[in-house]
Amino acid sequence: MKDRPLLQWMRRIPEYLAELLRLEGRGDHTGSQCKGCGTVGDGTYRCEDCWTTCMYCQVCIADRHVTSPLHCIQVWKGGHFEAVTLKSLGLRVQLGHDPGDRCFHPQRAHGDDFVVLDVHGIHEVGLDFCGCPGAQRHTTQLLRVRWFPATSVDPRTAATFAMLEHFHLLSMQSKLSGWEFYTCLARRTDNTGTEEIKDRYPAFMQMVRQWRHLKLLKRSGRGHDPDGVAATGPGSCAVECPACPQPEKNLPQGWENAPKWKRSVLMWLYQLYISLDANFRLKRKKVSCEESDPSLNDGIAYMVKEQQYKAFLEATGNLPPEKHTHCNNHNAVKLANLKNGALLAATGVGAVDCARHGFRRPASIGDLQKGERYANMDYLLMSTLCLTIIPWIVATYDIACQFGINLHHRFDEVYGWRTWAGRSLRWAIPKFHIAAHREYCRGQYSLHYLPLLGRYDGEAIERNWGGANPMASSTKEMGPGSRRDALDDAFGDSNWYKVVKLPASLLEKMKMAVPQRNEHVSAFKQYNDALPVEHTTLWTEQVEAWEADSTQPNPFLVTRPTITESSIRKKLLEEDAEALRLGREVILHEDFSSSTMLSAGIDLEEHQREHAANLAGLHEHATDLARAKVQDRQNTLHRKLDAWFKVQQLFIPGVIARRSQIMTTPTMQLAHKIPLLLPSQAMLFLEVDVKLLQQEWALREAQAYDALADTRGLLELRCHLYQIKDRWVRGQGANTRAMSSIAGVQYKIDMAAQRYRCAQNAMSCLSPRLGKDLDGWRRVLRPLEDCDLRHASEDENTTESTRTISWIWKHYSTAEQGQVPAAGEASANVNAPVRSEWCKARARAHRWTEEVLLLLEEMHRVLEYHEWAACEWERRADANFEDRPDYQEGTRAYALRQASIRRALKTYAQHAWRNVQEYVNLVTDDDTTSIVNLAMNSLPELESIAISSAPSLSGSLLDLASLASSSSISVAGSIPDLVSLASSSSLSLASGGMTGGADGLVDSDSD
């Protein structure tokens, strides 16, 4: 029972209920004596919010609440309690003086109608301002008692700081709208609807917006700047990511002045990871305008400065659209093309986030007008990157294969931005989205394969949208300025929450990364040792060449010769021409050769399938016009078949008679039911020339490969359409249009599958006759079941390491995507799958090893950033209000409190990570014991490597796979001392603090 408190409580329900009912009466205070003055007969008042339930007279209850004017008072009347205001009991709240001091010139609020919004409800208050000579302004008098005025002139409404803070946190945590909260306050004041409560909702929303802006400025230190709020720069009020590289804050001094070869070595540890994406749920209706509803923040946090942004978009509005690349046409299925944006001022927002830690970057978010136009995303990318001098950047974007190709040209030539010089930008596609891309992109832009990236998925920006989307229902109805300020506030709260959670999140990543590093490095070592040295040496050269230059052949992809139907038809026509030239061809028809007759027959077979699908699509209520069109197509097909049958008879004598014998039912007279009796079918009944069988085999084999390629491409498109629909499409109309698009793609998938099955069946018939059974074609062109028609990413409840993909993704060529067999590979192409798996095993070992080192560096940067922030706040302590001691004390106190908070965060992180260094060295296998020794203690010195290898960024210089062996660095070359590269103490999490065993590695909520 002790561990089931609810069961215990259930026995006491009557007792609890009785106590609640007892509190409806006077309890032990049924006498009429006042607890304060002892007067008999006047003790009829009590306070709901005070701790005691004693009864007081009217004078005493008012006197006791001089410093608590917002408590809720009840009066015993008619045998029950009724609510009554302190104002009606004569309590006057005097501002400008300490409680109990008399004001000789009190000034009542305008019309003696003053309302205060508090956490407990909406209160009417009898308020007197101080009118004495030298008195402060009315708004100042309110602020000094922690009441926020709704207007700056003759305020008649105020909100308590406590209420504003309460709603601020509540709205960020639960995404509660202002209307819902205000309604709650009104119902807390009167839940019967019988009392008239003064409407202060517009004033409430105004105060909330002003409060959020002031808190933003205060937390950012703008009140400590001698130049004032007007000097606030773009993005300077954003909460920064402490784990990302922040020059002059958490990087070693002089890092940017290091020699070129040394900067090359440090590049991957200090590179900046960003993600781009758009969100079409955070739209805004055409409500209000900039003149009526300007933004208070206007570019100082996360949303970009609106005026400059709009001017840029107007200047680039007439530029020709970007041409799409070889990859799937992703822009064609963006939400902007599915939904009508005529009634929207903004169809969504675009953003650039920190990719590894999920922070919103400063000055990185802006409204979209129609889809993810390159101009919008270009501006947001440049806006945020202008705020950092980090020259090495890794960017992920779901359309990186298209967006990144001409980025430098757009920046330099189209927009005239010359600030990009000297920067290195690498593109990748997030792991979830890459499944919808063609195989070439899956090889070139994969975070699994690209070197020196660590282990992350690039989808943090997608997870961020999940936290922001609940605000869509309220922000879509806001004016332009209100919405941008509200989003700024939400993004800032999200960032601060991540700052607080960084000790736990980085610790969890490290607890995952170390075992994975040990496992995959050990697995790669065993795999590598089991293969011939000459092969692994060649593959190492190939993968290092690709890592250094992505235009080199990609060793992760398996390249096979391409067979297409068009190429085979061309080849057969060339053979016909050669036979005619040599006089070997018997001319049976002036327009048709045997190969063209077969090609025409296969085309007619496709027309039959299409016509059958059209007939199946006719429902019982189809119009006469629709039926007439289908009948016309059937008649046309019949005429084509009759003409072809006459030609076929010349090459396969007796085929017309045999067809007549087969067509015994009326349904077989339909155009799509008539058997064509191509050689693969006719040979069962008639003598067919072997040449015809060989020609059909060639055409069918090419048809099968073509159909498989079409099927894969359509499955990729369907997968992407489903992703777009699930992420962005809302509403019945948009869903209907989206499902119509998906249904159209599904129809094409079904047709491609039928075409493949037909080709594969024909090959199965021809194979024994032509002696093809020993060629192994059945291992590649297998029977296609419905369950095989799935995307490579569609297996449920599987991960990258356990997924079993459909066979259609395993055996096909990549040459059509621009891949060429690497040097030396053509003669040993049978090793290509082994090479691909070796490269993937090597990549896994590299990525997890990089991840451990990056996490160590990020932990160090977090500690350095908190220390820098603490020192910065201490520097600000006496930076302003030197001539006003009362203001200076508050300014100094706030700065010191912020410095104390930063040092507390640093101390907490150090404690959470106190055993990380030992944990990184912890291994569970003799084979991997040397990993840590090699990585942490016995790596070669930087200078000697730099002399021999600089300035190369690939190859032996950064070949992390050599961590796999105990002493054999020859597996993949030597490694620089990556730990010492960052700085002399870059990866030391706490000076002298890394003591104790791995047993101390615990979750942050236990610390």
In a nutshell, what does this entry contain?
This is CxC2-like cysteine cluster KDZ transposase-associated domain-containing protein. By secondary structure, the chain is of the alpha/beta class.
Report on this structure.
Strand 2 and strand 3 form a beta hairpin. The chain contains 31 helices and 17 strands. The protein has 5 domains: 5-84, no CATH class; 94-219, no CATH class; 249-464 and 479-484, no CATH class; 506-558 and 845-1006, no CATH class; 565-809, no CATH class. The chain has 1007 residues and is of the alpha/beta class. It is elongated, with a radius of gyration of 38 Å. Residues 987-1007 are annotated as: Disordered. This is CxC2-like cysteine cluster KDZ transposase-associated domain-containing protein. InterPro entries: CxC2_KDZ-assoc, KDZ. Residues 86-193 form the CxC2-like cysteine cluster KDZ transposase-associated domain.
> In terms of structural class, how would the helical and strand content be classed?
alpha/beta
Instruction: Give the biggest beta sheet.
Output: 5 strands, mixed
**Total E-strand runs:** 17
Distance between the termini: 30 Å
What is the domain tally?
A: 5
Mean pLDDT: 82
The gyration radius over C-alpha positions equals 38 Å
Spans of at least 5 consecutive residues with low confidence = 331-339, 796-803, 812-830, 924-988, 990-1007
Alpha plus pi helix count: 31
